[in-house]
Design brief:
8-stranded parallel barrel; mainly beta; 834 residues; 6-stranded antiparallel sheet
């Protein structure tokens, strides 16, 4: 058994290349063939420990999304359990303790080199051993960290074992975090003289259409015992692959220390990074000692000017940009938090397609691949560090480690990510409890100063909320805190929701603050979906109000039910104000996701997405139909949600009954036509974009048309689908790479005999069969209350749709997926893996 493990490691670790794009170009993937066991074990760090009964997993890995044993109806479903410590907050998932082990051997040609092990992220409290030697502990689940293995490695040709213990115990988070080594792991083999990990820093201080100045600072480490004078050559490679500038300088580095060297290069007619054309350059840095190349790195960056002007707002390449932003959490739906590259790419693609140009990372730094996707696709990013400082939001959360670790973690975040052109701001916190206290003032200044010391090119912000329990102190007590920020981020300050019951002075606090600080900039770091219009109107009105980020752009596991609408008897008095919010958490089982996203858990647009695209002027008109409310009942829309509206005119059983139809448009008048006949018209109220109609349901085609001055500006149509006839499978990509970091996301649709999706179909279970060199990595739907497995080869459709995610095994070839439902024509699709 022991020998077999060595052979597997020798083949997979060093022979099989990964498509994963490492944050360091020198890194080799260390993801494959780890052993795993979920248990609080003793002595598992010892090389002699018997792990014969452990199972093999491929990283990234999230154990909290895996099916739980001993399924009990009503108590445990799929990966969800009522015994979850985090309950609704973490989506009824289970943390605990998990152990990972990996065997590997080094080649003889690595003799005399340094070896480092780099973790992109482990949730949380990771302890790492090499051959029984404790390398260190890392509490924060969202920051990258690395260890130098060199002093504890066995000689080349002999077996080494890495052991990692992960402890997600107690209430560590307010949302679903996942558990385990859920991001990539990398092995770096370096010569004694090398560029430090995260040691290249690139800025573009002068940018125009005609020319650009690029500063490249390189931090070189000398781990030898003698002083070395090396040559550092920097080459700029443009998006076509051409070298457009180069420079070489010498640097002397004393033994066992490091030294920095800055070089300035210029290029003509630069290809600028922008939202529409996110063109990327590379900087190749080569270290030469005499005639021998000792190190080479390749760092991706963008040439773009970024300016925050107190009068003009956010300027990207000299052009004003308003933030059409959304907040996102860390997870990837049916994959949990396992950061598989293609899933991160797709998430950004979906958000950009939905009209977003900016993302706020809430409330933690992301996987590197997410930022790489934002760079490639043209998405602005607000990178956020912490959800709490010294005061707890949960008993076992990061507040336990903040004093000792916040500086190290902030350094990890900024050094790792500061070359990403997509990042435009750093946030040091979210809704910090001690913001109006002396410790909040002290930490705000310290963190802001640390950010500016590491990256002075971007402004510092954080998210302030002025609601209970935060309003126990007057606003004047917050002033010393926000004085440390260049951009003030406000949560829910413009929202008029009855849940918040705020006075007008509080609601428009940003206007008062601007009058007192005329050089500052402001934005909504969070706002409710129903407040999108008022937030955007303010952004269009004031150059210094940058726009903002809705809560939230995409559904996520955890904070279960905060967006779901609830039904109450008409006779029941509805809860008001903040007291009502508890109803959306209370007894939310089996609801496991927040249900507050513009997109659902598998990426389909929901009502708030269509509404927001009219708000942002991306769409001229959108029409949605409210789901019928049972007789004798009334709906209470959640503060973070939206009324239960659907883009559908397929409502079997509702014939002859009245349906509420909402038409969203910025035009002045709206006309409705049903089956070719005009049935209603309406003037859109001033200050609104909503025209509401009550329409007697008849199957056919319902059309809404928008007019200004008698001229038609746009139309939206919905047609009734027929009876379910077949299953249609549509892959986002039918040809993918034969690598476990690539995925094919396959939409499952129930269609009628004319090929129309039948949105009224709900609860039909689709069974999947897959043959070939692949597996199903996850299945899902948009139902926030479907707790069935994400990993079994079957899933119910929700509003006519589901999703299957196909993952290659690493071998070239093809995979054939079939989907069946009794009585329907099955669906088939082939995925090619090259």
């Amino acid at each position: 058994m022991f020998v077999k493990k060595i052979i597997i490691v020798a083949i997979l670790t060093f022979a099989a290349c990964s498509i994963a794009r490492a944050q360091d170009s020198r890194a080799v993937s260390f993801d494959r063939s780890w052993l795993f066991k979920k248990d609080a074990l003793k002595n598992a760090e010892s090389p002699a420990y018997d792990d014969a009964n452990w199972r093999s997993v491929t990283l990234p890995h999230d154990w909290s999304i895996e099916d739980l044993p001993n399924q009990k109806e009503g108590e445990v479903q799929g990966p969800f359990t009522k015994a979850s410590v985090g309950k609704a907050a973490t989506g009824f998932t289970e943390g605990g303790v998990g152990w990972y082990r990996k065997y590997f051997i080094l080649n003889k040609n690595t003799s005399g080199k340094r070896h480092c092990l780099l973790f992109d992220g482990v949730y949380m409290n990771a302890d790492v051993w090499l051959n029984g030697h404790h390398l260190g502990s890392h509490p924060y689940g969202y920051t990258s960290f690395y260890y130098d293995l060199t002093d504890y490695l066995n000689p080349a040709g002999k077996v080494n074992v890495v052991a990692v213990c992960v402890k997600n115990i107690g209430k560590t988070s307010r949302w679903y975090s996942g558990s385990g080594i859920y991001r990539h792991v990398w092995l770096l083999t370096l010569n004694p003289v090398h560029t430090k990990i995260w040691g290249t820093y690139i800025t573009t201080p002068q940018v125009s259409k005609d020319k650009a100045t690029i500063n490249i600072q390189n931090s070189v480490e000398n781990k030898s015992t003698v002083k070395r004078t090396i040559s550092i050559k920097v080459e700029l490679i443009d998006p076509t692959g051409a070298i457009v500038a180069a420079q070489k300088k010498n640097l002397t580095v004393p033994p066992d220390t490091s030294a920095d060297l800055a070089q300035t290069l210029k290029t003509s007619n630069p290809k600028l990074w922008s939202l529409e054309n996110p063109l990327l350059y590379k900087a190749r840095v080569t270290l030469t000692d005499g005639s021998k190349i000792t190190d080479q790195t390749l760092t991706t960056f963008g040439i773009r000017s970024l300016k925050f002007d107190g009068q003009k707002g956010l300027l990207l390449n000299g052009e004003a940009v308003k933030l059409k932003g959304g907040c996102v959490h860390n997870d990837l739906g049916p994959l949990g938090s396992a950061s598989i590259d293609r899933a991160e790419d797709r998430k950004v693609e979906l958000l950009k397609r939905a009209g977003y140009n900016a993302i706020r990372l809430s409330h933690n730094p992301p996987a590197p691949e997410f930022l790489n996707a934002c760079d490639r696709l043209g998405m602005l990013v607000l990178d956020e560090a912490f959800d709490m400082w010294e005061k707890a939001k949960n008993p076992e959360d990061y507040h336990l480690y903040f004093k000792d670790w916040s500086q190290k973690d902030l350094e990890s975040i900024i050094l790792r990510d500061r070359n990403h052109p997509s990042i435009i701001m750093w946030s040091i916190g979210n809704e910090i409890y001690e913001a109006p206290d002396s410790s909040g003032y002290r930490n705000a200044k310290r963190l802001a100063d640390e950010v500016r010391g590491l990256d002075p090119t971007r402004p510092v912000t954080d998210a302030i909320v002025f609601l209970p329990p935060y309003t126990k102190k007057p606003w004047a007590d917050y002033e010393p805190h926000v004085a440390n920020l260049e951009v003030d981020g406000y949560n829910y300050f413009l929202d008029k929701s009855a849940f918040f019951q705020r006075d007008s002075a509080t609601q428009h606090r940003f206007e008062t603050e601007r009058a007192e600080h005329p050089e500052k900039l402001y934005m909504s770091t969070e706002y409710l979906p129903a407040a999108a219009l008022e937030n955007w109107d303010e952004a269009e009105k004031y150059p210094w109000f940058l726009g903002g980020f809705c809560w939230t752009a995409m559904d996520y596991i955890g904070e279960a039910g905060i967006g779901r609408p609830l039904l109450f008897p008409e006779s029941q008095k509805l809860p008001k104000g903040l007291m009502a919010m508890g109803f959306f958490y209370k007894d939310s089982w089996p609801v496991f996701n927040a249900d507050c996203g513009d997109l659902d858990l598998i990426g389909n647009p929901k009502a708030a997405s269509y509404y927001k695209n009219v708000v942002w002027r991306n769409s001229k008109i959108e029409m949605l139909v409210h789901k019928p409310i049972p007789a004798g009942m009334k709906e209470l829309a959640a503060p973070w949600g939206f009324p239960d509206e659907r883009k559908s005119w397929t409502w079997p059983g509702q014939e002859g009954k009245m349906m509420q139809v909402n038409v969203y448009t910025r035009s002045k008048t709206v006309r409705l036509e049903l089956n070719g006949k005009v049935i209603a018209g309406q003037t859109v109220p001033d200050g609104s974009i909503t025209a509401t109609f009550n329409v007697e349901y008849q199957p056919g085609t319902l059309v809404a048309k928008a007019f200004d001055g008698g001229k038609e500006k746009g139309a939206s149509a919905l047609s009734t689908a027929g009876k379910p006839a077949a299953i249609r499978l549509i892959a986002d990509r039918k040809t993918i790479k034969a690598d476990q970091n690539d995925l094919s996301f396959i939409s499952v649709e129930i269609i009628d005999d004319k090929g129309n999706i039948v949105p009224s179909v709900d609860g039909l279970e689709v069974r999947f069969q897959l043959t070939g060199n692949a597996s199903i990595a996850g299945v899902g739907n948009g139902d926030p209350a479907d707790m069935s497995s994400f990993q079994q080869y079957h899933k119910k459709v929700y509003w006519g749709k589901a999703l299957a995610i196909v993952r290659p095994s690493g071998i070239k070839g093809s995979a054939n997926l079939s989907a069946t439902v009794e009585g329907l024509k099955p669906g088939h699709i082939q995925i090619i893996m090259k």
